[in-house]
Design brief:
Layout lengths: L3 H4 L20 E7 L3 H12 L8 E8 L6 H5 L6 E7 L4 H11 L4 E6 L2 E3 L3 H12 L2 E9 L5 H17 L12 E4 H6 L12 H11 L3 E12 L5 H24 L5 H13 L2 H5 L3 H37 L12
């Protein structure tokens, strides 16, 4: 069990931990990409400090993805209770940030979560048995909404829940990057996250390539991360516009691999939308009406992002096909 000092991190009057080199089996590197959310990051780090897994077997790597707000004070407040490093990079998106953190991580396993998430104290100890049982497998658990009174956050979580239920109904083929743990060696073997998925869907792409490479994904129901993304209407629209862009990139990647056709993608999406009927029926009338309206906004924002990304892809194709002026001086008089 963690000490009281670990439960209430402070840099005042406490002895700095000397963990030495993180090495050996059963060690975790928790990788957190963050940008301009110091308050949420502090809550996330507080949750990591409360893990009931042995503290000497955990390191934390925080990557500041080009944020304007300095994070030194936030991270320094946890140096007495966490083996923690802060890295900075230009704003290249979460995929690039996670890859950078993974390259410098020292643990046997990489544990990815987001700065607005709060893993429960038994997160890592719950997920470790699955990692040992299945060998070189990726493991993920449940993500639950921590902001029940926020209709946008609740609906966004409903969308994630339906995605898990739909894509994993036969076998687990997808876990989100805010609750994803996997062997570092296998992560590097599949080349990590694809940084071309800068808007979103880098986790969907990683899971698809992971399965294609012959690795397993397992779902650990009791490994829970609480998601505290306080969404407004504008924030909800921005988020799902990005997800629409990511969906288009993912569809293009799957078509290049011969995994799905455009018509097959449309059929899959329509079947996915049909899965919302049952959870909607379980809601009370007022909440049901609100949720239906928010879901309509989701689809409009998602479609707009999908079309926007498609237009960028078309423009990029046209640009690549356009003849370039020759720079050769051969034959010049």
């Amino acid at each position: 069990m963690k000490s009281d000092r670990a439960r209430h991190p402070s840099t005042h009057g406490s002895q700095r931990l000397d963990r030495g080199e993180l090495a050996g089996p059963g060690t975790f590197s928790v990788v957190i990409a963050t940008r301009n959310r110091p308050g949420q990051l502090a809550d996330c780090l507080r949750s990591i400090a409360r893990q009931d897994y042995p503290g000497e077997a955990i390191e934390v790597v925080v990557i500041d993805d080009g944020g304007e707000e300095p994070l030194d004070d936030v991270v320094d407040a946890f140096r007495d209770v966490l083996d923690i490093r802060l890295l900075r990079q230009l704003h290249h998106g979460p995929a690039a940030a996670r890859n950078r953190g993974a390259r410098l991580a020292r643990g046997e396993f990489l544990a990815f979560t987001d700065d607005d998430c709060r893993p429960r104290p038994d997160w890592l100890s719950r997920i470790m048995p699955a990692l040992r049982q299945y060998g070189r497998a990726m493991a993920g658990g449940r993500t639950v909404n921590a902001l029940h009174s926020n209709a946008f956050s609740s609906t966004s979580q409903m969308i994630v829940d339906r995605a898990y239920a739909y894509h994993n109904h036969r076998s687990t083929r997808f876990v989100a990057s805010n609750n994803m743990v996997l062997p570092a060696s296998a992560f590097h073997a599949v080349a990590g996250f694809d940084t071309s998925f800068r808007p979103a869907s880098e986790d969907r792409d990683l899971c698809a390539r992971w399965v294609h490479a012959g690795f397993e994904i397992c779902f650990v129901h009791d490994a829970v991360v609480e998601h505290a993304h306080d969404l407004s209407l504008a924030g909800f629209v921005r988020q799902h516009f990005r997800y629409g862009r990511g969906a288009r990139l993912y569809m293009e990647a799957m078509r290049r691999r011969g995994a799905i056709s455009k018509s097959g993608w449309i059929r899959e999406h329509l079947r996915f939308l049909c899965t919302f009927a049952a959870p909607l029926r379980r809601l009370r009338a007022v909440r049901q009406s609100t949720t239906v309206c928010v879901l309509a906004v989701w689809q409009l924002a998602n479609l707009a992002g999908f079309i926007y990304q498609a237009s960028l892809s078309v423009l990029g194709t046209v640009e690549n096909r356009r003849p370039r002026p020759s720079t050769s001086t051969e034959g010049a008089e």
